[in-house]
Amino acid sequence: VNRVDARGCTALHHAADGDKIDIAEALIDAGANINARDDDGATPLHYACVVELPGMCALLLSKGAEVGIPDDDGETA
């Protein structure tokens, strides 16, 4: 569940970006790293915040996503 693509994104990054809440929850329950960082340092929570997905943000936060992790530009979720 923690394999990465060419940009360093995990399946959880893609689920977060696509607002696939059920898939994201299943991935987290299966052991996905909720704070995984892509090649730009962005976490799944960064993705959900950037595209303004409050339900996904709420899920990630409830499962332990950290808001204070900066991406490579110093931005936090």
UniProtKB/TrEMBL annotation:
<keyword id="KW-0677">Repeat</keyword>
<dbReference type="Pfam" id="PF12796">
    <property type="entry name" value="Ank_2"/>
</dbReference>
<protein>
    <submittedName>
        <fullName>Predicted protein</fullName>
    </submittedName>
</protein>
<feature type="repeat" description="ANK">
    <location>
        <begin position="7"/>
        <end position="39"/>
    </location>
</feature>
<feature type="repeat" description="ANK">
    <location>
        <begin position="40"/>
        <end position="72"/>
    </location>
</feature>
<dbReference type="InterPro" id="IPR036770">
    <property type="entry name" value="Ankyrin_rpt-contain_sf"/>
</dbReference>
<keyword id="KW-0040">ANK repeat</keyword>
<dbReference type="InterPro" id="IPR002110">
    <property type="entry name" value="Ankyrin_rpt"/>
</dbReference>
